[in-house]
Amino acid sequence: MASTTTDLQDEIGNSSVSPPDGAADAHRAQGASPGNGGAPKKRDALLDNAKFILIVLVFVGHAIEPLTDTRIAEAVYFWIYLFHMPAFVLISGYLSRSYDGSRRRIDKLLTTIATPYLIFWGIYALQSLSAGRDLPDSPLQPLWITWFLAALFIWRLTVPLWNRIRWPFAVSIGISFLGGMVATGEVLSESRILSLLPFFVAGLLVEQRHLDILKSAWVRAWSVGVVLVTAAMTYVYLEQLSREWVYWRESLIDRNVDMLPIGLPGRVTFLVLAFSLTIALLSLVPHRTTRFTKLGALTMYVFLLHGLVLRVAEQLGWYEFINDYLGTHGALVVNCVLAVAFTFVLCTPWVRSATRWAVEPRTDWILGPERDTAPGSTTPASARR
């Protein structure tokens, strides 16, 4: 399928990243892409709608995490974690299909992923220090939500490989299983890179005809069933479920889980559940333009900033206050509502203007001049002089 997304979209798995100039917001809203003369491109409403709903779920999941001492809160939390990041990874893969390793793509990879990663690693490190939290040994060990940027950087670099090999999805599944069978470290969130790889590769393979199938009545009926059954099973079997299955941050070896009869069947089960719920989400979200469609282009602002809102709120004693005042169930409802409200707040122009320096930094100055390579040679001309 010819891509219906802009070059800006496919830099980070969403369409939030764009040239940080005064016309950036209008540029994004029109779907314009640099390099096409400013001609507007039609945006994919399905993807923007899905991204907005997913970022709401991300915010809600993190907002209720300190309240999961009640069964209903823990069940909601676990169910969200079954699929929200795998779905984001799949969409990121879909929006990465045009990556070809060219100089322009590498430049954008450095400026829209690597640089924000380092900036927000530093921001979250400062917040952690102020709250008395321990820090990783180096910036190569992602801090909390920054793991996604680190993983996306690596996944994006591998796109030409997946476009070249014969059975990319099968190979990615094999790598995911192997990743669960070996000890992994914390550098660049290795376990998540390997474990969630099938979702990224699946996104690379998705075509318009696959998305069209999602509109059919039988798929939507199946999707409703998947949502209801998984939600009910999560609630019923909550005591037997470990969060580590849906965090994907440690291998089976690191968790001391036997490969059989639990480890590998468990990994298969949670991969199937994540794929099923991702398909269900893409089927059930509106495929038409809605009031929140445009906000789907701004999800990276919410993703990178919402953690600060929650960390500062926790540091100031918000959770103790609301729990004492309203009780556990009242606190759960209030935090869910506030998470949705703050999702909209973090998409507002004044928030984007105030934080663009971090989310969309001007980083052209870090890029060196292009080194020309002579025909038939892999050695830059400048290195032969």
Strand content: under 5%
Gyration radius from CA atoms, angstroms: 21 Å
DSSP strand count: 0
Number of domains: 1
Q: What is the overall silhouette?
A: globular
How would you portray this structure in words?
By secondary structure, this protein is mostly helical. The protein has one domain. Helices cover 62% and strands 0% of the residues. The chain has 18 helices and no strands. It has helices spanning 24-29, 45-64, 71-81, 84-94, 103-130, 147-157, 159-164, 168-181, 190-195, 197-205, 208-213, 217-236, 244-247, 259-284, 299-315, 318-345, 349-359, 381-384. The termini are far apart. The relative contact order is 0.16. Mean pLDDT is 87; it is low at 1-40 and 381-385.
Key phrases:
385 residues, 18 helices, disordered N terminus, 0% strand, mainly alpha
